[in-house]
Design a protein that fits this description.
mainly alpha
Amino acid sequence: MESVYVAVAFTAGLLPALFWLWFWLREDSYHPEPKTLITSAFITGMLIVPPVLYLEKEAMALYTDTSLVVVWVMIEEILKYSGALIVVLWNRAVDEPIDTIIYMISIALGFAALENALFIFNPLSSGDYTDALITGSFRFLGSTLLHTLASGTVGIFMALAFYKRNFIKIGLATFGLLVAIILHALFNLYIMNASGEVVLGVFMFVWIGIVILILFFEIVKALERRHLRIQ
């Protein structure tokens, strides 16, 4: 029976992430990225989950309360960014600014898929199907979009520096990572033990961030068009 729960939880975590991946890939429909590289990024995001869980468990022995939440966020965001750097961002296929956002989001959604599956598996395996359904729904509309927003933010700053000198690229990417950590940490700190209107307010914060992310996609596209006209 446990194998059935594993399959259901994995599917429940994977399908929503794939839906969001399809949604964001439509932003790059003019010059789509290689499917193999997108798949590699997505799988990399999933593979990051085990080391993140290990490091977060180790951090529990060193930090408490707010400090622990911030450290956990730093671990997640730094490892997602590192995974993107190692696996995809060096590739020649990353040849326009929007690509950095697409691949950062792909990494984030792979991470969210497996993380969500683990969160769904716990109540599912104990027979609490209602809690499993609620958990999956909340993470589809909340945590999955949060990971997208955080990693997408890093991708935006990398995109804005795409045609700049290397030291500017490094500086803006680092700043983007810092912003991502702050956004993610604020979400986690406010969502802890929150209920009712507070939860709705926190989710609204993420949804507004997603709208802003979509607007930045258009800004980055305009940046690319301007660069092509100058050439």
